[in-house]
Amino acid sequence: MRVHVASTGLARFGRRPDSLVDLMAEAGATALEGVGRRAIDGLFVGSMAAGPLGDIENLTSRVADRLSLDSTAGWRVEAASATGAAVFHAAAEAVASGQFRHVLAVAGEKMTHRSTVDVTQVLARSLALQEQLAGGTMPSMAALVTQLYAARHGTPSAAFDRVTVLGRAAAARNPAAHFQTAVTDGEVASSRPVSSPLRLLHCSAISDGAAAVVVSKGEGPVMVRGLGQGFDQPVVADRTDPTSFRATRVAAERAYTAARLTRKDIGFAELHDAFAPFLLIALEDIGACGPGEGGRWVLDGATAPDGRFPVNPSGGLLGRGHPVGASGLAQIVELSRQLQGTAGATQLGAPGTAALALSIGGLGSHNFVTILGRGEAG
Can you give the pLDDT at residue 37? Predict the structure, then answer.
């Protein structure tokens, strides 16, 4: 796949007064500074819930109008909380096909203007209908998975706490992150219970924000090496093993195969930690460590910025924030900047030559893995 990331843009995550279109236009305009509007011949736009949360439809044409891209072809993409990754995959495949030379991928979400109850109800729509009818929500279903995982592997709650501590510490170095202050293990462990054993600081926050990437044909500083996606049963109870996400394992295998790389070739990763325990599961599912070993990896410092496998230098969803449609594309932005050495305050000392992003859609029912690598002048 001779496709590269030509430029990136972010609209700061957090509580923003701007509209969804404003946020997308901000991120898109920043990305376009690297290539110019005239070069763009395709526009891919992603939002998980623009309609339910913001009463906005026909989103692609609105973004095209704001960015003066009305002469391009455009599509809207949606894959629940993995929408940002899906937008990137669609853009990269479209360029690889030869149909386009330069595609602008933009993804965002506007959430903080709605109540927590409203947002929780909207996000629950990506669960299986049976789970919704039983009163299931994202936090309650994530708590169920966490209970099963902890019982199977004997994982201490301190491991879940440390995930949040590391994410918030990284976010404090990221000027585009929602949270700008670090937290302690004790503060996480004593935060308000949400759904046992999950506490408030184990859960990503409701945020606003947007991300954008220009994907171009040919060689460049950051190459798209491998793309993979996978599905799993929407009903968690129907899965063979609810403590591991088959969709991630399939997506990772496909991405590694496409990239002709293994996990050992990956220098760092951005992993979907909408809930702290999901980062441990993700480490295991992408092959970084064995089943049940994720907690020990985190507690031993392996995933810290100076560890043997740094994870979420941006702060992740727990620290950077989780405007659901944008998070997967924000991961791509971080990977690209790290590989080019332009990540600023979040820059890793040794990011390596290849990096991986995992984005989870729904409760692990449609997941995406992206592998990027250094290319020319990278």
Answer: 80
